[in-house]
Amino acid sequence: MHTGEKPFVYETCVKEPFVCETCGYAHSAKRNLKRHERMHIDEKNTPLSSTYKYGDLADVAGLLDISRIHSGEKPFVCETCGKAFSDKGYLRRHTKMHTGVKPYVCETCGKAFSAKCHLQGHERVHTGEKPFVCETCGKAFSVKGNLQIHERVHTGEKPFVCETCGKAFPVKGSLHVHERVHTGEKPFVCEICGKAFSNRNELTRHERMHTGEKPFICETCGKAFSFSCSLSRHERIHTNEKPFVCETCGKAFSNTGSRNRHVKMHICKPLFV
């Protein structure tokens, strides 16, 4: 500790070409390294100080921490729900979800969160910032987790399988929501009108009907919307984008509703001209 000697070198890091200069984590894919490096950015968006360099670790504890990244080991388990984590700090942040404590409040809309990182992700809804970009197609996301989910569109990976019907999903949350189709469970209840929903996102969208909240704002004209899909549809008025094409005649439309109404014209042709 006093000599500064760093005798413990994680062998996987040595073999891989892309190495994190902060902690020594290495990977064969550059994008995975970039994703990892964001872990070392603190709440003020400045690099965390560290003595780790190129895979040399100061002690055995540090070696164990980084080895879990490679091995997938998750020894820290939530006593409430059983979810496991590779880092004790991640477990502490997670347990706040069960306590109901939400000390981090959005100054724009007043929504509260149990973790600061969740607040920061939410604030990008208001700012429009999308720093997480898919290297395959260029699509950008405001939340890192959404990028990771999106990347499975390109890989086709669907690791979460329903035991009842065999349907597979790219994310565990989607599987849980799907399973409620079989159970009929609707645990998310609106406190204002009592309507119940099978997933939290549906409840959140529904609640905006009562609150009138419109967090999605058009940067071109300033018009506000309750839902991101409504904003995306509106923005095509300004861009003149028409991504929905009739397969019969090739005519393009800015939204699916207009395209579907048009398609019926081909299906319902008059018998006599």
From TrEMBL:
Its main location: nucleus. Keywords: Metal-binding, Nucleus, Repeat, Transcription, Transcription regulation, Zinc, Zinc-finger. This is C2H2-type domain-containing protein. Gene3D superfamilies: Classic Zinc Finger. InterPro entries: Znf_C2H2_sf, Znf_C2H2_type. GO terms for molecular function: DNA-binding transcription factor activity, RNA polymerase II-specific; RNA polymerase II cis-regulatory region sequence-specific DNA binding; zinc ion binding. Residues 18-45, 76-103, 104-131, 132-159, 160-187, 188-215, 216-243, 244-266 form the C2H2-type domain. The lineage of its organism: Eukaryota, Metazoa, Echinodermata, Eleutherozoa, Asterozoa. May be involved in transcriptional regulation. It is found in: Nucleus. Belongs to the krueppel C2H2-type zinc-finger protein family. The keyword Transcription applies. One of its GO terms (cellular component) is nucleus. SUPFAM superfamilies: beta-beta-alpha zinc fingers.
